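Q: I'm a student working through a structural biology exercise. My instructor gave each of us a protein and asked us to get a predicted structure, then write a short paragraph describing it. Mine is Acetylxylan esterase. I'm not confident about reading structure output yet, so if you can add a plain explanation after the tokens, that would really help. Here is the sequence I was given:
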Amino acid sequence: MNRKHPSVMRVFIFALLSWLKISSSAVFAQGPGPRPSLPPIPIKGDTTHTLTKHFTQASSEPKKTDAKGFIQRWLVLEPVKKNIARNNIITDNFLKTTFSADNFSNDYNMIPKDGESVKIGDQDLKWYALDSKTFNFNLYHFTYALNKPKYGILVWLVTVINCTEDIENVRMSAGCNSGSMWWLNGQETMILSGDRDMIADNVTSPRITLKKGKNIIRGAVINGPGMANFGVRFIDDKGEPVKNFTISYQ
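A: Happy to help. First, here is the predicted structure for Acetylxylan esterase. I'll explain a few features afterward.
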């Protein structure tokens, strides 16, 4: 009699476990019907697409550099969309060929007007006169604010340096992500090729002279995947920032 109890108990436990398994399968494999509401996914970052978060509209009054000599006022053209799968194709020759083909003007002393549009290829693009709120000009923030392509882009830039006298033996200094070229008063001054990060003073030009009156800087920044931004200033022979000039967009 007592020997039968273990067998009965084993049968009972097996039946109970089988029932629990079937019940749990039914719970987790429900058929069509309303599903439980998931918690809302929080919105991350800026979704407003506004320029005012990182930039201010440039005024007609001349602007000084920041404390370290960086130029924060630029005329910036909406991005030219480029099919660039990787940044290691950005060689010197690639930059020169691309910037020549997708140029808004062959007159490198030409100063665009704020708000005017130009056509490059089949794209109608608008100029913006903006002051960056940081020492560098973040083109990712610029293109995001305009709801334009953020990667695989070419962006043209122009600014005007106003000097009360000649400033000799200075160097233009720039950093960018990823590749860029820079011109001063129509002359090529620097080229930054390759897959670079934005590092201040990454490349400096030979000695140049900022002449009395207007000096026109033109730049072009290009990148494939990743961020695009730049920072430009002038430094003297000791590596100190040059700040005795003003900046305008006219």
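A: Here are two points you could use in your paragraph. Residues 4-28 form the longest helix (25 residues). The chain has three helices and 15 strands. It's a good idea to check both against the output above yourself.
Q: Great, thank you!
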